Amino acid sequence: MSQHSVRTLHADFSATVPAPGDPAMNPPEFPSHAHPWAQLQPHGWQWPCPAGMSVLEAALAHGVELPSSCRNGTCRACRCRLVAGEVRFRIDWPGLSAEEKAEGWILPCVALARTDLALELPPDVG
Predict the structure, then answer these.
(1) The predicted structure's pLDDT at residue 123
(2) For site-directed labelling of 46, which of 9, 34, 67, 95 has its Cα 20 to 30 A away?
(3) Which domains does the chain have, with CATH numbers?
(4) Residue 3: beta bridge partners?
(5) CA 14 to CA 8: how far, in whole Å?
(6) In the chain, at which residue ranges do the beta strands (DSSP E only) sit?
(7) Would you state the pLDDT for residue 14?
(8) CA–CA separation, 88 vs 13, rounded Å?
(9) What would the mean pLDDT of 38-63 be, rounded to a whole number?
(10) Contact of 74 with 95, CB cutoff 8 Å
(11) What gap in Å lies between CA 1 and CA 36, rounded to an integer?
């Protein structure tokens, strides 16, 4: 798998899906590290998510170009599904419905990685 740089996003609201160790999730392999990493599936692109950076900021800083526009949680252009891991949102209620949050959708522009993450782009972006 190739490794790409990415800018990190910050968030205060929590969203959780099954942990990467859950066998049902078939978690990605992450390098040894001192801070969380993100991986974009199925591409396998990985990048570190340093504290204080949003997932999107970290991706962009490491050469991973995720879709984005507003960078404040309102336009939804960066919407990704959280396959594994946990994030915290910078804002209390990012531009997602309760149903979307329950399905694992996050906005990387306002999301901070609390653990290693596995992300998927929506099928129409892929």
Answers:
(1) 84
(2) 95
(3) 11-20+35-120 (3.10.20.30)
(4) 46
(5) 16
(6) 11-16, 37-41, 45-48, 80-84, 86-89, 105-106, 111-113, 117-120
(7) 43
(8) 5
(9) 94
(10) yes
(11) 17
Which residue has tokens 């946990």? 86
Which of 119, 3, 125 lies closest to 54, judged by CA?
119
Half-sphere exposure of 103 (CA within 13 A, CB side): 12
- Residue 62 φ then ψ, to 5°: -110, 20
The arithmetic mean of pLDDT across residues 112-123, rounded, is: 94
30 falls in which pLDDT band (50, 70, 90)? low
What is the SS3 assignment for 110?
helix
pLDDT single digits (tens) 92-101: 777 899 899 8
Separation CA 20–CA 48 (nearest Å): 16
Q: What is the pTM of this model?
A: 0.72
By the 8 A CB rule, do 117 and 49 touch? yes
